Amino acid sequence: MYRRERSILLRGSAAALSNNLSVLQLPDRDLRHFGVVHGPSAQILSSAPEGVPLAQRQLQVKVGVGVSPPLITQVHWCVFPFRVLLVLTSHQRIQMYESDGSLMVYWHALDSGDSSSGTWSGRILVFDIPAKGPNIVLSEELAGHQTPITDIATERAQGQDGVADMVTADDSGVLCVWRSGTTFTLLTRIPGFGVPCPSVQLWQGIVAAGYGNGQVRLYDATTGTLHVQISAHARTICALDLAPEVGKLLSAAEDTFVHIWKLNRNPESGSIEVEHYHGECISDTQLCGARFCDPSGSSFAVTGYDLAEILRFSSV
Amino acid sequence: MSVRTLPLLFLNLGGEMLYVLDQRLRAQNIPGDKARKVLNDIISTMFNRKFMEELFKPQDLYSKKALRTVYDRLAHASIMRLNQASMDKLYDLMTMAFKYQVLLCPRPKDVLLVTFNHLDSIKGFIQDSPTILHQVDETSRQLTEIYGNLSAGEFQMIRQTLLTFFQDLHIRVSTFLKDKVQNSNGRFVLPVSGPVPWGTEVPGVIRLFNDKGEEVKKTEFKHGGNYVAAQKEGSFELYGDRVLKLGTNMYSVNRPVETHMSTTSKNLASRTQENIAPNPLAKEELNFLARLMGGMEIKKMSGPEPGFRLNLFTTDEEEEHAALSRPEELSYEVINIQATQDQQRNEELARIMGEFEITEQPEITEQSTSKGDDLLAMMDRL
């Protein structure tokens, strides 16, 4: 159902992080931006749909003279109605750029108090982003997690304009579902079960979570009830992604497999259903990132640890 | 990144080093008592209490260059000598072996079982020395104390820190190639069959629940792998069946181990960039080395015990050829020491290094007059 397309070559191999592939779809310009963390640098590149690379750029966290740049933990595009920002994070600093990485518009130093003992507080920082310009302001800090945050997902709240739902996941597997407003309120908290939750997605009030023991679980976002449990992979899941137009869920894991699932809400019972749609084995590659490349899920891309290319697939 | 990674990295690499040295000592027909002395000296230096104290302090991982310095010192803790080419090859084998073990660990926590496998084998080398045995047991206890209660999330972070350390290393090892655990492009084979990790279910099942949390339906899907359930969990006790084979000794006298020095052009790009850029880590690395090696108690080479040279290759000519043909991007580069800066720390390091007398120095051609210069010359050779 999917065939392998031409790979996009990277300057440096992908690092062994979760969610180590970010894709910005720009359908009106027939372009895609890809972001991959290598280590102390992240590579941003843009390509035409056939995978022909057009431009590339390397970003690093700015440090003082004589100090080597720290390891980057994530590179991700945040899409707002009025602008797109590229966010680069490391353990001590967050940097935000215009979407092509050409101009840094803001940076924020994280509390490095206990960085030497390696515990990160699990705080969630909320920034107010203006429609234009660098006047980004830290507006809130949310406490809900005790262990480092692994992933965040958001979607517009159902039937409510200007309100978003957000789900955050952490290293102990705890999930928190929030609703935005003048401040964020915690709607529900889903307990962990002894393994990290590296990746989480939100679609039509369904929380999709990928865990360190290879399970994918689907919960109702409002109640926190578990509806589906899939023993999807034989190793930790490294990335989840959603194609919102059709409710396709992509899961990639360190077991070298990528699976695509079809999510569905039963209109009568309201319960969540899922069926397996497609599976792909990327031989001998410990995957670290995976994303759909278009909102209907007809194409996707993956990255692997030690691999200096982005592998692409599209449906036939 | 995890600040609890160094002890695991050091002990496992050290274990691999001992496996290789043990194999070469036997292959080169070094007399039993000499071979035992070498292993005893190295092991007792490795597990020295002061050194272990420094090692177990929460800290970041340092570069391969800095860590290599420590192993160089360790390998010379006895009457045995290694030429640069042999030391390079030894380090290649150590790093590729542990990289393989980390990658193949079913659960991130299993790296602890790999460590115990190495320690179990190390105890086998020093059965006749109760003092050193006690040191190793002490370290095992410390490992259990510190790592026994770490969460799965913390182990995953340790795993990622280790993989970052090993990123882009694709040296081909002949034993791995022959056993088909490594491909000819240097990548390790990741099997999609066999037992799943302890705590993971065999993939292929979808369970549906109702509002009350009751399972209402169970369907299957084709995962694509060929997995079976895990039989047994390995033991994390001082003694026990580890179940996992990773980290046990894979060398034997009759399997000469060669490495193949070739990298793809892609790897070349990223590595040469690393080497060309000035090394701003030098200062932090010197601090680390001073602390760590300050805890290393190397026995003075008093007495009539004659030294000998160990060759990791089958002949001297091969060793010479390897030294000449090692690709630029794979050389364990010099730590760029600014001699004019930080006199005090250099003096401190010089003092520490001064305690480790190397009586034979065939490689140093220049005659140096001061301790500082000796130190720089030694560091420059590494």
From TrEMBL, chain A:
This is WD repeat-containing protein 54 isoform X2. The gene is Wdr54. The lineage of its organism: Eukaryota, Metazoa, Chordata, Craniata, Vertebrata. Keywords: WD repeat. It comes from Mesocricetus auratus. Residues 1-316 form the WD repeat-containing protein 54 beta-propeller domain. WD repeats lie at residues 230-271.
UniProtKB/TrEMBL annotation, chain B:
It holds the Pfam family Oscp1. InterPro entries: OSCP1. It comes from the Eukaryota. This is Protein OSCP1 isoform X2. It comes from Mesocricetus auratus. The lineage of its organism: Eukaryota, Metazoa, Chordata, Craniata, Vertebrata.
